[in-house]
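Work Package 3 (structural annotation) set out to generate three-dimensional models for the target panel prioritized at the project kickoff. During this period the team completed the workflow that converts sequence records into C-alpha cells, so that structures can be stored uniformly alongside our sequence database. As a representative example, we reproduce one entry of 190 residues exactly as it appears in the project archive.
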Amino acid sequence: MESERDHGTDRATGTAPDTETAAALRRVRRWLRTFVVCLVLSGLTAFPLVAETRWLADLASGPAAPLVDWVPGALDWIERVRTGVAETDARYPFLAYGTDWLAFAHLVIAAAFWGPIKDPVRNVWVIRWAVLACGAVIPLALVCGPIRGIPLAWRFIDMSFGVIGVIPLLIVLRALRPLERSFRGPVAAG
C-alpha cells in the first residue's frame, strides 16, 4: 500500500508538500532514475562479453581510432582481453556464468532503488549504502587488479565507475538533507 507521501502528501501534517519540496523530490527522483539506468546498462553489458570485446578490439584498431597514439599498449591489452574472452568462451563457456551473476547483481541492485525512487527520505539508507559500495570499488581495483594482472590504466578505468557513480548519489544525499528535516517534523524536547 502506498503511503500518503508517495502521493505528494506529507504524513505528519496531511498537507501537500510546498512547491520547493516537491521540486526537490522530483530532482532527487530524476538523479536516482539516472543512476538506475546506468546500473542496468552496466549490468546488461556483462552478458555479451565475446561480442563486446570483439567490437572494442575492432574499434580500437580501426583507422579512426588514435588510441595507440594516446595510450601506448592499450591496443595490445584490448587484443589480449578479446583473445582471452573468446578462447575461454570456446573452451570453458561455463566460466561466463560468473559474469552472468555479475550482470544479475547489477540488475538486483538497480531494483533495490525502487524504494528510494518511491520514497527517498524513508529509504535514504539504500542511497548511503550505495555510496559506500561506490567507494569500495577503489580498494577492490587496487588490491585485486594487480593480483589478476590488470594494467594500472585499466584499474583507473574500473575505479572511475565508483567515482562517477557516487556523484549522483552525493547530489541526492545533499538534496535530501533538508527534506529529511522537513518530513521528520519538529523534534520533541526530551
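The chain has a mean pLDDT of 87.
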